[in-house]
Amino acid sequence: MLESLQSLDQTIFLALNALHTPYLDSFMYIFTGKLVWIPLYASILYVLCRNFNPRMAIFTAIMFALLILIADQTCSSILRPIFERPRPSRNPEIADIVHLVNGRRGGKFGFPSCHAANTFALACFTMLLFKNRAVTTFFMLWAIVTCYTRIYVGVHYPGDLLFGTAVGFAAGFITYGIYRFSLRVNGIASVLHYQENRALVKRPRNMTHTSVIIYTGLLTIACFAIYCIWWRTN
């Protein structure tokens, strides 16, 4: 059964990885990197600062950092050493036919995917925090595209991404649970002046400026897409 699943996983990976063009090589390489996240994180911090008092904004931002820490370290430090599944780019059976971008093969093991865990953890946490359909849809689509880039650049099987997605959702729910539990602790709530923002936490649909997150993400994608065109022509 396990061998059949691994064979199917490999077949799907090779089919998807084979769909490439010079332009997409440039775009996917940039989109799968870390710089693309900086404007998005900045926009989230902006929205927090516009809606919450300074202490609550900082505390919520810390929860975002905790979220990524849980998702990332669960995959990289706990699960990967247990499963030790080589990336497709490191699998001697198919390594020679895997399409790589800029020769990057990634680390030795790739199950589960940290990128999938991190992006879906963020999507899950923002879904619970903002309870805004547009924001949730945007982050879910962003996470899906991010996962596809990992197949495209040749460093993850679909199974790596599916399991990473599960880890991400678990991290999102756990972190949000910690967040809400902490706000119920009188000492913490008092320090954070939580009473000032209690209504927004309980009814987050009343938060303002959330569309900034979506516009920032779309503008970031557009800028990188244009940059890739310039990059390919110079």
UniProtKB/TrEMBL annotation:
Residues 61-176 form the Phosphatidic acid phosphatase type 2/haloperoxidase domain. It comes from the Bacteria. The chain crosses the membrane at residues 27-49, 56-79, 109-130, 137-155, 161-179, 212-232. Pfam families: PAP2 (PF01569). CDD domains: PAP2_like_4. SUPFAM superfamilies: Acid phosphatase/Vanadium-dependent haloperoxidase. Gene3D superfamilies: Phosphatidic acid phosphatase type 2/haloperoxidase. Keywords: Membrane, Transmembrane, Transmembrane helix. Coiled coil: none annotated. This is Phosphatase PAP2 family protein. It comes from Butyricimonas hominis.
